[in-house]
TrEMBL record:
One of its GO terms (molecular function) is flavin adenine dinucleotide binding. Belongs to the TPP enzyme family. Keywords: Thiamine pyrophosphate. This is Acetolactate synthase catalytic subunit. Residues 11-124 form the Thiamine pyrophosphate enzyme N-terminal TPP-binding domain.
Amino acid sequence: MNIALPPTDNRTGAHVMAAALARHGVTDIFGQSLPSALILAAPHYGIRQVGYRTENGGAAMADAYARVSGRVPVVTAQNGPAATLLVPGLAEAFKASVPVVAIVQDVHRRFTDRNAFQELDHFALFAGVTKWIRRVADVARIDDYVDMAFTAAASGRPGPAVLMVPVDLLDERPELAPDAPRRQADLGTWPLDRMGADPARVAEAAAILARAERPVVIAGGGVHGSGAAAELTRLQDLGLPVATTVMGKGAVAETHPLSLGVVGYFMAPGGRGSHQRDLVTGADVVLLVGNRTNQNGTDSWQLYPPKARYIHIDIDGAEIGRNYEALRLKGDAKLTLTALADAMEGADLSRLEARRPGLESRVAEGKAGFERDLDTLVDMDAAPIRPERLMRDLDSVLPEDAIAVADASYASIWIANGLTARRAGQRFITPRGLAGLGWGLPFAIGAKAARPDVPVVCLSGDGGFGHVWSELETARRMRLPVTLIVLNNQILGYQKHAELSLFGDHTDVVHFTAVDHAAIARAVGCEGVRVERPEAFLPALEAALKSDTTTVIDVVTDERAHPPITSFMGKDALDY
């Protein structure tokens, strides 16, 4: 790329910052033209702006970009109200262990603490949702602070870092000596530094697993963050059955004879993992990999066996033993799984080998039982349409290299429960850090920006989509075409059904008036298709996957349909 740079004596702090970002491999900034000086300088360094409509959407785009690309993304915002809108997205990334660098414009240095326009205590604002926050006050220190931000975001347990930049700093001309050394380090990949667990503990873990009678592995999102899918598959091939959390879905191929699928809080009849539950609850040894053992993933801490022996691999030592006392393997999942597989290959695996044929038959029976349950419990030809029918059709045509994205709430469960990971490393992007509504479409746009060469399909409820309708225009303007399936049941589904389950009644505002989401799509220049009969969905989906235009498929779905959430079992109020 031939980049026309301004003469050295005309370069400003904005150029220094843009050059530093380019050095870290940044090619996209998710921003809304602020800080303007930085955005104007960025194209000179091969960086484009992906212009979001709302800051919360931009933060979500950056999050998904990081998950898919393995690079540390940058999102920008102005001080004050714009910065406050970054908080939800950074909170999701913080809880989900995803690195993001947020560059936030601050007031002029001379105006600090004088009630300048939109001045705010940003350190207090971001304190609970970031790993690191600093303000750069000297133009000569820009490289230092940019490097610190990327290091903080990408090292250890990844997460967001915020760099406050006074607006006047970007217009200041630094004194750049012609012979001054220039930094060369690229700190923009994650994990930035890999460390393996204590070899003695790895050997101990291998011996425990080899001797176990009923071992199981439960892999979380840390496997994807570490890029450790191949290493986990190697361990599975030695005879260990592997289940995943929702964030861990795709860490192994779910077609593998020892894959149990997603386990957690939706293992009631109709759940992909419903017939595999005993393999988890009956385990005598549980290996956790990059797994936070949070409430949903453990079905409110009722799923994992209380008397089992636990081994826990995690980059964050504070997560090991948080809810289940465990043999501590603190380290990067990729390195530690490699060492564990090496150690197991040198151990006596006769017990695992003897058990394997019967175990594979047991797992296969469970998978077949799931399919039978769907045919028995769900009318796939019903109208209004059942989400299970949509997932079955999507699963039949979704390419292995496609990225499936979901909004929060039911959409995440439909994706996790209804789609099949056909290869290790396949990506299913769901907001499970804080699981806020409205993440789906911006997640899809961020994923597409990271991987423009693959199809991106997003599932959202009408409640979640209502948060971010405006980002359809972003997808069109930025030429980032995605396929968005909206489950249009005119209710906040999880809210209504949870209230019915708990109280036998529901609040009034769970109901929406009718909205034609396909018409909204067409109004901003995207494709919009409304589907009211189940047989019309698959042709619409196939056409959308072939299109180079963002398409919204607005599907009228049954408001009574809910995923197989275990806490809903036996609640008569849901049979309305």
